[in-house]
Design goal:
By secondary structure, the protein is mainly β. Helices cover 0% and strands 52% of the residues. The termini are far apart.
């Protein structure tokens, strides 16, 4: 099983980034997918989740209206489109797959929002 995040980097406040998470080794379309983040000195928090078929999404209040989670089950990939980024969005972002029995994590990608 592998979850490989990409797309992180340094961006100015107000800018945008799109994170991708490529999955392999499990039946991607049977798993809900989430994005989490962890800032230095803070607990890991879930920022967005999407159901296995992609019909339902949910967001943390802190990112609602700015972030959009989506998935392509044909490409085994989940995305996080982030816009209007703020310095408080600086964190390591992790991809997570879960189905109530299994729970898989990626290695994370750093997002830094700074001028």
């Amino acid at each position: 099983v592998q979850l490989v995040e990409s797309g992180g980097g340094l961006v100015q406040p107000g800018g945008s980034l799109r994170l991708s998470c490529a999955a392999s080794g499990f039946t991607f379309s049977s798993y809900a997918m989430s994005w989490y983040r962890q800032a230095p000195g803070k607990e890991r928090e879930r920022v967005a989740v999407i159901t296995s078929a992609g019909g339902v999404t949910n967001y943390a209040d802190s990112v609602k209206g700015r972030f959009t989670i989506s998935r392509d089950n044909t490409k085994y990939t989940v995305y996080l489109q982030m816009s209007s980024l703020k310095p408080d969005d600086t964190a390591v972002y992790y991809c997570n797959a879960h189905n109530g029995f299994n729970d898989y994590w990626g290695q994370g990608t750093q997002v830094t929002v700074s001028s």
